[in-house]
Write a structure and sequence with these properties.
With about 170 residues, this protein is of the alpha/beta class. Helix content is about 55%, strand content about 15%. About 35% of the residues are buried. Bound molecules: shikimate-3-phosphate (S3P). The site of shikimate-3-phosphate has 10 residues, from loops.
């Protein structure tokens, strides 16, 4: 059974929806950032502070290498996971990639409370930073097998859409 892999920008609801999808489908749920934190013994923000983005990406790559081959999981990946070609190959080899999207305004609203824990959104103008990163990442998010706009949806509705659309892909 293929994995269902949730990708997409910060604040699009990957972890919350992923947990629900896993419950509904009775599959194991893996949140890749939490997996990395457990293995590294440090929070993501601390990893960025200690070893910059490159250090985090290396740990992320190792996490994908280890987690992706196991079948039947629901995986919520970090927003930058598809920037690495090897990660894309490994996740696609054994999974359906579902990209969650949202408007810049919704992303800003959803990430505001957790902004201090988001190293890539630091600086005086987070909205501009989000827009800049979204534009840079558009080509990698386009590699997903299907896309769901979560802007006007509740977590439950997002989970239902994922179950429905990923199920259709399985057929
Ligand atoms: C990142 C997103 C974060 C986390 C790290 C880098 C990114 O995960 O992996 O801060 O590059 O977009 P979430 O998308 O789960 O917040």
């Amino acid at each position: 059974m293929k994995n269902i892999v949730l990708v997409g920008f910060m604040g699009t609801g990957k972890s919350a929806a992923g947990r629900l999808v896993a419950q509904r489908l009775k599959r194991p749920f893996v949140d890749l950032d939490r997996w990395i934190e457990k293995k590294a013994g440090r929070a993501v923000a601390q990893i960025f502070a200690d070893s910059q983005e490159a250090g985090f990406r290396k740990l992320e790559q190792e996490a994908v290498e280890e987690v992706a081959p196991k079948p039947g999981q629901v995986i919520a990946a970090g927003g930058g996971v598809l920037l690495d070609e090897e990660n894309v190959k490994r996740l696609k080899a054994n999974g359906i990639l579902v990209c969650l999207t949202a408007t810049t305004e919704v992303i800003l609203k959803r990430t505001l409370a957790t902004l201090p824990h988001r190293p890539l959104l630091q600086g005086p103008r987070p909205q501009e930073r989000i827009e800049e990163l979204l534009a840079l990442r558009a080509p990698s998010y386009a590699l997903a097998d299907l896309t769901i706009d979560t802007s006007g949806l509740t977590v439950k509705e997002v989970a239902e859409e994922i179950v429905k659309k990923a199920g259709e892909k399985h057929e």
